[in-house]
Amino acid sequence: MANLCETIGLFWHLFFNTSIATAKRISARLRLSGSFVCWPLHFSTSKQPQSITGKQSGQSTIPLLALLAIFFSALPAQAKYGGGSGTAGDPYLIYSAEQMNAICTNSSDWDKHFKLMADIDMVNYTGASLNIIGYFASYDNNKPFSGVFDGNDCTISNFTCTSYNTNYIGLFGYVTGVIKNLGLIKPHIEAGTVYDVGSLAGHLENGTITDCYAKGAYVYGGNSVGGLVGFNAGRIVNCYSTGMVWGDRFVGGLVGQVGAGTVTKSYSNAGVSGNLNVGGCVGKTMDETSAVTNCYATGRVTGNGYVGGMAGQVERGAVFQCYSVGSVTGNQYTGGLVGYIRVLGMVAHSFGDTQTSGQLTSAGGTGKTTAEMKMFSTYSAAGWDFWDIWEICEGMNYPVLQWQIPDEDFRCPDGVSFIDFAFFAAHWHHRHCNPSNNYCDGTDFDHSGSVDFLDLAIFADNWLAGVHN
User: Fold this and answer.
1) Distance (Å, whole) CA 2 – CA 42
2) Mean pLDDT of the residues in the chain
């Protein structure tokens, strides 16, 4: 006489072509679990009709449909992506390029929470809009990514997209949600003459991008083209870009065009080339609420008109406490810091290097020599915040953002070098490291209470890391 658990195990064996051993294991698990009561089953061979209750000749049986219902309800749910349920407390986990690409095809999940759990390589996923999360075809036909994607300080390498007839191009095409802690390595975007093109996001609308970067980016598009974001009507904080950016109009090393949005504590050293409204950090600010603050640009900028080392044109809004040092080449309305400022635009407390830019004038900001650009007094007189935002090594380099500086870069924000190793060595085997002495002046990286070989390993892992300008 069989029981229900054994019957399900046998069904699994016959239906799914598993081994008898597997079937027995399934039966045993069901018997031990609280999901089933493994009662006896009596299968009648009588051809007499059964009642709707399944009773016949005093024997108790279970209708086949009920048995199947119980069986399939016992099957384990297939984990989606790499696990998780898509909530804030239990985000979907992404471990592979395949799982990352699956987000693109599951638009019903674009309002969910995701967390990247490993560095992934998208080299085998190329093409047009198949790799894009969030789209905007028209005001009546659009679906943004409105969820949260936490990169978890991991990277996505070799994201490649080629599309010549679709706007809003990037890893995320149309974003109203949050993207954070994500790095892109060598993203490659070719978008012809379309608009709103960026390596990370084509169009950011009322969303937020924080602590993200694109390193070694290749971005080519039409209008509103940026190394990280094409069009920004949201918030971009603590981000940067390197590589090359090409476009026609509104082309920027970090952001192509800024609408009702802000760019804060970010920078670009990407090279930028375009026709009109071309800038080292942003191509153009176009809204009265546009704000680019505490940012800088170091890349080479070339264009035809409205060309600037920091911003091509400030039509509306403000550029505040920013600087640029890259070479600038243009034909009309070209400036070391800003190419052109309209009546509703403002540039304040900002500086451009007249020597490295090759431009003695600018539509806004103040021109300084290279030596003056590396002086603390230049910026402190303009009210720059060197407590929480900026850092400078007097006479040696330009200001950098504090979030850029590795913990191992003890002396001057110029990269982890022998100067920093000498400082670390001077604290070797120091004990009693605690918050009161800033953990031995920061050399006790793991906060173990002493400076030892574990701290040396951490230092070695970050050798030559950091900023070099």
Assistant:
1) 7
2) 87
